[in-house]
Amino acid sequence: MKIALITSLLLAASATLAADITVKHAWARATVPGQPVSGAFLEITAGKAAVLTGASSPAAAMVEVHEMKMEGGVMKMRQLDKLPLPAGQTMALKPGSYHLMLMQLKAPLKVGEQLPLVLHVEQDGKSIKLNTTAEVRDLAGK
């Protein structure tokens, strides 16, 4: 009885933490056979300050948080260890900016498929894993 009560309380606390963070408009770019990488994009909003520390997907061996930006007239991309999520602000991960880099894809991503993603977030000193899905779209995001 006590174990069931403790488990219920832990699940409720976890759901409360996750409920403070919303993910919308998640999508990923389709690939052609043999293409080992793709990008995933989404909007994430945290009610309280949080940090996106990474992601994972069963479709890729590695998923990293990346940033693209112009430096000295050259577009550069780099991996980020963390991406701050300011309280109450929507952080857009989009082409040409912050995004998730899906690497060593296990199979091509086809338009119309649903790509499972797990976002790794830290908030209030706790690690949270948020499950979401991204619609696979064509290169233009349609």
From TrEMBL:
<dbReference type="Pfam" id="PF04314">
    <property type="entry name" value="PCuAC"/>
</dbReference>
<dbReference type="InterPro" id="IPR007410">
    <property type="entry name" value="LpqE-like"/>
</dbReference>
<protein>
    <submittedName>
        <fullName>Copper chaperone PCu(A)C</fullName>
    </submittedName>
</protein>
<dbReference type="InterPro" id="IPR036182">
    <property type="entry name" value="PCuAC_sf"/>
</dbReference>
<dbReference type="InterPro" id="IPR058248">
    <property type="entry name" value="Lxx211020-like"/>
</dbReference>
<feature type="signal peptide">
    <location>
        <begin position="1"/>
        <end position="18"/>
    </location>
</feature>
<keyword id="KW-0732">Signal</keyword>
